[in-house]
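U., I forgot to send this yesterday:
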Amino acid sequence: MFVDRAKIFIKSGKGGDGAVSFRREPFVPEGGPDGGDGGKGGDVIFQADENLRTLMDFRYKRKYEAENGQNGMKKKRYGKNGQDLVIKVPVGTVVIDEESGLIMQDLTENGQSFVAAKGGKGGKGNVKYTTSTRQAPNFAEAGGFAKERNVILEMKLIADVGLVGFPNVGKSTLLSMSTSAKPKIANYHFTTIAPNLGVVKIFDTSFVMADIAGIIEGAHEGAGLGHKFLKHIERTKVLIHVVDVSGSEGRDPIEDFDKINRELEQYSPALIKKPQIVAANKIDIISEDDPKFLDFKKYVESKGYKVFPMSAPINIGVKEVLAEAAECLQKLLLEPQEENEYQLFDFEAEDNDPDYRTVTVEFNGRDYVLRGKQLNKIFNSTNFTDAGSMRYLYKYIEKSGAIDKMKEMGIEDGDIIKIQDFEFEYFDEDYI
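Result:
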């Protein structure tokens, strides 16, 4: 089954917690702190693999988690780093952050990879909190939080030439006559329900050609399987527009030609700018002297396109169409290529979140609720049986401005302050 879109959940590894430990040696009655740091959590990495052709595997497994970092240990031993999770996807896969809708990476080359979710940093052991005034810290740092997100995987075929046109105009037949591809061919609409690829060898060159499933009117708005089909045209360099010039099904070739181009332009203006070769198929049903063909040729050429009479089943005009495609590709190689412009997901901004150390205060009618990413990390590191550790937490909350904010909001002695699922009574000029 050809699957070209999937949504999955990814989660990096949590950082290991730092250890609280003290030396216990014979004849050393009061050994110093020796708690080691926790290990870093594993990253989630996407990597393009040319051996994959579909996103089908992601239909059956939708949750991917990297390994957590190991907690620190006594004797200043560091915890082991969590193992990275490498998720392999087909070349041509776009990875999109679902929440923002921004592209995280477009994986267009075999082996290309990127980190989609960084693992949490390992927490510091209590040996790192020793100071001249704090000789025996009885607390350590909790490991950094894991990152988690839903991502959309969208596969877009990487082909040099794309075949476009209404259903049943002969695109699959042209592909089968030009390559070793074996698409399903029959005289009914939507024979092709997924793109087919084939390699065209002509003269001393070759190129990859894709049969893009039939486009219908309204495809740019998602009619039929519009978006599913049209996105595969985006990476192609040259288009071969196949038109049933005979009008064998009562259709108007000129009208069909305009409708397809209109759908391409409305989906993306960049598509209509691609070099386009017009293959006037089924010329065996009429002749090149037929007024219907002559009118079509005159109209299309007035738009700046070349027209090639063709009958794919009996191999008339096929070589000429392919030769023109090869020539167009060669010209494009000599020209500077415009890169696709799109807004990328900003990993740097995520890593340097200005709100990371911000502590927000909210009164819910009963409690004063404190929230903050750095606050949660320090809170998780707090040893509530150790006065020094509690004082460290209080000082952080005080420096954040949260105490002053709660006073402005009217907090009084005995009121409840809530952090995560824990509740504390407030007393002025005292630590929580």
